[in-house]
Every structure is written in structure tokens, then in C-alpha cells.
Amino acid sequence: MLLVLAATVTAALLLLHPTSIKAAPEFVGESRVLVPDPPTKRTHLYELQLLIVELEKFADSGGAFVPLGDRLLLVTPRGRIALIQADGKLSYLPHTVPMYESAPEKPINWIGFRVADILLLEASPEEFTLYVSHHFLVGDCVEFRISSTKLILENDGIDITGDWKTEFTAHPCIDTALFAYWVGDVPKTGGGIQAGGRMLMDGAEHLLVAVGDHGWYEWHIQLEAGDPAKPPVVDPDTHLGRLLRIELATGQVEIVAGGFRNPQGLARDPQGNLWLTEHGPQGGDELNLVKAGLDYGWPFATYGILYGDRIWPYNSEQGRHDGFEEPFFAWIPAIAVSNLIISDSQQFPLWRDDLLIGSLRSGSLFRVRIRQGRVTNVERIGFGERIRDIAQMPDGRIALMSDSSRVIFLQRAPLYCHLENSTRSIFSYDAGEVCIDVFKVIGEVDDPMVRALHGAEPGVPAMRSLFQVFIHENRLIYLKTPCSVHELRNRFFLHITPVHTDDVSEELKQFGFNVYDFNSFDEGVGSTLFEGGCLVVRTLPEYEFKHIFTGQVIREESPDGEIFWKGPVWEGSHTFGAPSPPAALAEEATPPSPPDELLSHPGAALFATYCAGCHNLTAEHSAGPHLDGIIGRQAGAVAGFDATAALTALDTIWSRENLAEYIANPTQFAPETAMTNMGLTAEEARAIADFLASER
Length: 696
Description:
11% helix, 5-stranded antiparallel β-sheet, 3 domains, 43 strands, 36% strand, mainly beta, Cytochrome Bc1 Complex, Chain D, domain 2, 6-stranded antiparallel β-sheet, Neuraminidase
């Protein structure tokens, strides 16, 4: 396959995809970008390439990032500050966000104690003010603050003074009991997760911040046993559950709107409309069009329900939102909505003015289109990652931050295009609106078999799937975009059915007369990579063909060095004499379903609704331990996760039966467990346990 030559041709394509990136010596930490074959993701309008930067693992959820020119400034949930360069290089600063008055005796392990958001205000091309919304531990209570410091650009790096100023402190200070889980009616550890904290500049002199209620009203429900006759009293001066406008020069605070539970996203569209996303309780996640002076209902109106129950006790009527400003749109069941942006990316012009909204529970990005004052369509783009933050880079790439300690850059993958009935042109997003004639580009490559196709007129493809196959003279030509060296290492196979079997030699008949291998080093095979794609050519036998079937399988290597093949990952066929397929755009081809969707098991939807917000099916922890291989595992014993004593003391091996009992009533099965009773029936719990057993 002449991979050395192909790798040389590909080098220019991989400049942004280094195989291993070490941090600068003065910083701690490292990152790597998954290369040389960035995965792709097909959406309704575009195919995306995913460039993934691995961060140092952080066990907590939260944190945020913001573009800084062509770089990305990032702060982890517990206040570490990092910079990701345009080429993926990651470096951590020695400074951290201040999050306590004095160092506590024990590490702070509250799930909800976090950095919520960051924001940059430019003073000059080299100097910025960095604003951070975050928690701050003071004695026995937790403040919600906005702190600031100066940030200076220095060559390829940044520096901050380390001097922090408190710009805002929310009222009231939150008792540490709210940061604990509940057992019965006694707070133990947990509610502060509803922090909100998203920020947005409002002109040059004011800052907007959406502050969450920190579980204040769920705490009230626990104390009052959810008695509808004892509704909470909302302090008119409280900052909790409010959108606030802060004058930076004076610190003066104005309440813009209220009635929010856990606001996670804040963005302004080109028309000046202010959009806010917030978590509802077990359903009723909201997209709100915010207008000054309005009350959006919480805690007295929600489309959600109480955890462990089928009602929200203070709703005047269940399933309605009467008496308060309605949400613009609500998700039922909840998607655990996170941040949002309004897209104006030059890489994705068909997404212009759409809202791109992150989701934790569904591990997805939602593209929401609003026209004529209403939501006209919603597209879910699954990534299998809890999307915590989202930003648009100056070059049009979309950046996603996940709770799996990853940053994912989305860029437009090269796509086919056609000019004046040309079926062989290809579009590269780097080339703007230019269509590239593949059979002219390859005229300068070194492989003689490929170079011989320069200027050829192969006609329409004989096969088209996620690739194109041309049959030209005595050659079969495979063309694919995007493509990489890694894909060329996989095996192409070719099955040929001759019209007359007598034309086939006895040697080939013994082997299987119709099997050929693209990857053989025999004469008659050539390949190359060019900007945006790859091409493989194979000389065909001289006899007359009846049918050709081709495809590609993936090369795998076991730990002991054994090579085996998986697949096929694509396939196509052509019968000679049959009409050729229409020269449709490659965008119209339907690819295999992506592997990120839950299987259609009866318990899959229940798992997605009630469990996926805290548990992953892959071997990676989230707010709760991962559930990969849970059947047969000892309760509370999984590497990398500190389970509660309630589980570790059980001395139980999980089976379908006892897992279903635990899911149905966690506190009865394991008193003082951290898991919340979700109000599932015994039948629903069994369906989830069966799903985990059968699929995992």
C-alpha cells in the first residue's frame, strides 16, 4: 500500500492533530489529541470531525471555558486554570481560583461545590479581566461569589497576578447542610448542586449572572414533608433563583427576573433577545426567553415533578405552569440541560441563528431552530459525553467541555460537491467554495498506478455508500472522504463473480476464485492520500465480470500480538448490465446508525430517564459509579470510585434480582446510601436491571 508515501502526502492534513503533546516544563499536566484518525459524527446537515483533547482527570463535575483568540482558557471544577493552544497543547498555570477562607482539615468532597462559569473582559489586546463564578467556603456556610483577577498575554502563554477581587457575593450564605445528601428528613450531604452561575456581559459596564436556588426549596420540602399547605416563603431580596445585573464599577446589584431553579445557560441573540436554560426537577428542563420583571415560576410552578414522587407539591395543577411566565420550551423527560450559544459559525452556515444547547443526561448537543416566535425543530446530536459547557471559536469550530475531562472540537468534515455535472469533485472546508477535481489533484503523487489516473474520465460511481467506487477500464477505484492513514491500514476486500468460471485459473479457484485483497503488495495495487480524502486503485482481472462486491474490515491487534479483523465497516456491490445509481450527493447517503444510541431494550428508555444523569454505561465514572459489568460485581467495590459505607458494608454481589430491589428502594436496601429514591415501580426497576444485565 506504500504507506510511507501516503503518510508523507498526509502530513499537511495532520498539523492540527499532534500524536502526543507535552505541557511546557514550568507547568504540570499533559494532554493528547486523538490522532491520526479523528472520529466523525454525521448530523442532519453536516458531517463533523471530532478533535478530542484529554485533560488531567478531575473527579468533580462543573468547570467552564472561554475562547481567548484561537486558544481556549479553561478552569476545572475545583479552580485549576489551564490554556489549550490552537494545536491542542495544554498547560496549567500555578494559580488557582480561591475557594475557601482557610484550608479545611479534610478535602472538600461535596458534589455541588464548584467553579460554575468564567468570562473574559478585554481591556487591551494584551490585558483582560477574568471573572469566575464559584463557591467559597466560610466557616459553616458556603458563599456564591464572582471573583476577578488580571490576565496578561505573554507570547504563547498567559499569566495572572494571583490577586483576586470579590466582585459579588450572593445573599444569603448557604448553610453547609445544603451541600449534603438527605437521609429521611435529615440533611447529610448534597443540595448545593443547583448553583447556576452562568455569566454574560451586558454592555461594557454591567455583568449578568444567573444564580441557582442551591436546593433551597427542595430543602424546605424535606423539612415540611412536602405539605402543600406549607409552601416556602420567597424572600423578595434573595439572590437565589434570580437573574442579576451587576454594575462593575460600584458593585450595585439589580434583580432582572426571578423564578429560576438551576440556570445553566445564558446567551443573547442578534436581535437582542436573552435566552436562559435551566434544570427542572425530574423533568421540565426549560428554555426561557427572559424579559425584565417577570417571574418564571420556581418554586410554585414547574413541568417537573418531585424526585421519588409523581407530583410537585406546590403546583396549583399537576402538569401545568399556571400563574407565572411560561417557558419558551420544556423537555420532558429532563435532558439535564447545560449551557447554550447562538451559532453564527462560518463553518456551519446552515446552523446560523440556531441555538446549540448542551445536555448532561443524554450526552448530546441539541440544535434548536426558532422561527416566527416558536421552536420549529430540535435535532439531537449524540456524543455519549455529559456536555458541561459550549463555546464557538473565532475560526467557526464549536468547542464542547465534558464531565469526562475532555474538550471536543467540532469542525466541518470535507464533503462532496458537484460542479456542472461533475461526479468526481470533492469539497474541503479549508478550500472555501472551491470544488477540487480529484483526478487532477492526484496527478502529482508518487504512486505510479494512481498517477496514471490523472485526467481520467471514470464516469459516475458504480457504487456509493460512505465511499465511491468507480470501475474504469481495467481498474477498480475506491475514493473516500474524509480518510486517513489509519483507514488505509485496514483491509479492503473484493469479491468478483466472473461471467464464465472457465476463465479463472485453477490456482484462483482453489483459493476462492472471486476473492482479491486491495492491501496485498502484489503488482496492481496502489494508494494515496490527498487533501481531504484517500484513493485506492486495483487492477482487475482480464476476464468478463458478472458482479463485484467490495468492502473494508478493521485491523485489530490483541495484547499478545495476534492480528484479527472486524467488520465489514462498509460494503457495496455492483452488477454489470444493471442501471448505474444516480449521481446523488454524498450527503444523501445514509450511514450506519451511530453506536451512541441506547439499544431498544424495554429498560433502555427508563435507564436514560432515571439513571443516565449520574451513571455511565462505559467504564468511566460520572456523579455515580459506572455500571459497566455491574452484574457479578461486589456492591461498593469498583476501582476509582469511593462508594458510601452503606454499600461497602453490604458484602453483596450484584445480581438482576437484588439490583432491581436496590433500584426500586435504595434506602430500604442500603440505609444511608447516597442514591436517591426515584419513585420507580418494582416492574420498572426490574426492566432497568434486566437492561444492565443483558446489554452490559
